[in-house]
Amino acid sequence: MDHRKVSPISSDGHRISPLDRQILALAVPALGALVAEPLFILVDSAVVGHLGTPALAGLALASSVLLTVVGLCVFLAYATTATVSRRLGAGDRAGALQVGVDGMWLAAGLGALLAVALWTFAPAVVHALGADDEIARQAVTYLRWSAPGLVGMLLVLAATGALRGLQDTRTPLGVAVAGALVNSVLNVALVYGLDLGIAGSGGGTALTQLGMGAVLAAVVVRGARTAGSSLRPAAGGIWASARQGAPLLARTATLRAAILLTTWVATGLGAVTLAGHQVVSSVWGLAAFALDALAIAAQALVGHALGAGDVPRARAVLRRTLQWGVLGGVAIGVLLGGAAALYAPLFTSDEQVRRAVVVGMLVAGLCMPVAGWVFVLDGVLIGAGDGRFLARAGLVTLVVYAPCALAVRAWAPDGAAGLAWLTLAFSGVFMLARALTTGYRARGDRWMVTGA
């Protein structure tokens, strides 16, 4: 491709540039795979919410723990995408797929260890978050029934990362859509059909995740066999995958710490705020991952460009995906904030919780354009392999956010007002701090290291 022909959308408003077509070809299918876990939690919230406020509040705690565990392991996808795309850009397809296989072996082993740990320590983790007896019982039940699904979800991360690096986002999309449908059916059947309550919701999600992981792993294995890559676990390759992901693990740890801190604050404000926070965070998470689809496109394209030594191409991807990210944030923010009163009743019949959800989503919608900027820059820097900077920046943003969250815990009331202040602290202050740090880095050129 002649990269000199890359240009913005043409003035006639109908034709789009080759770069825009590439971004959309990767971002639109990537959306499905990215929203898989938040969509599972969203479905669980809708199903469990009608079991009562204690069950929904318990799901809020449990899902925060689960998303933290999965989020800490997101390096399995991000580091793999960056390395695979660089090797592909350098012309080494067999080596790219070998990285994917090594990543899946790491995911399977890590998932098994984390599943056992989650089952064992679920009561202690929930108790540390400060829940009362009934909410704690619901949270522990969900965590233990969903624990086996961690093996599948981590395989999904590693396999999806490999496929993204190969610029195949359609396969994860198909698997994610099928998984979402199966998860919805299983949740309703187990929760209400077999009367398992919140345990059925956790078990149905775990079964779905295991199935998704098996399907995506089979796709990568088939590609590796065709390319001549080894399928056997190699200690050196697995260790290399772990080492490359370590900075991203540290970066994600600060992000998940901020999210857990937010849940802890919501717990301290009362059951209404906590239940409302579960809905707001679920919807916000779904929207955030929708914007993160652009970041996935940026990861793959920037990694490929830098692997091929094409710095101007990397800059062009950065500029264009930032434009898409901010505009997408505006559109999603208007949609989610404006329609909050319509979808809040889908999650709960409690009028106080509904009111809190509406107010919280209005605040979150106003902050969504900043999120679009943040996610794209995050993706660009991950694609460039700039994990060390992201780890340091994550610590800075956490230090900025923590006093704001603690102030909300100390002074905000329960209900709609408390959730509004808490949402403003997270989606406003925390996201703005991330925007400033990553924006400063992207202005320079230290992140643009070329070669495989």
TrEMBL record:
Molecular-function GO terms, alphabetical: antiporter activity; xenobiotic transmembrane transporter activity
One Pfam family in the UniProt entry: MatE
Subcellular compartments: Cell membrane
Domain of life of the native organism: Bacteria
Membrane-spanning residues: 23-43, 55-78, 99-122, 142-163, 175-194, 206-224, 257-277, 283-303, 324-344, 356-377, 389-412, 418-436
Coarse class of the protein's main subcellular location: membrane
Membrane topology: Multi-pass membrane protein
Gene Ontology CC terms: plasma membrane
Keywords: Cell membrane, Membrane, Transmembrane, Transmembrane helix, Transport
Stored PANTHER family: PROTEIN DETOXIFICATION 44, CHLOROPLASTIC, PROTEIN DETOXIFICATION 44, CHLOROPLASTIC-RELATED
Family: Belongs to the multi antimicrobial extrusion (MATE) (TC 2.A.66.1) family.
Name of the featured protein: MATE efflux family protein
Originating species: Cellulomonas gilvus (strain ATCC 13127 / NRRL B-14078)
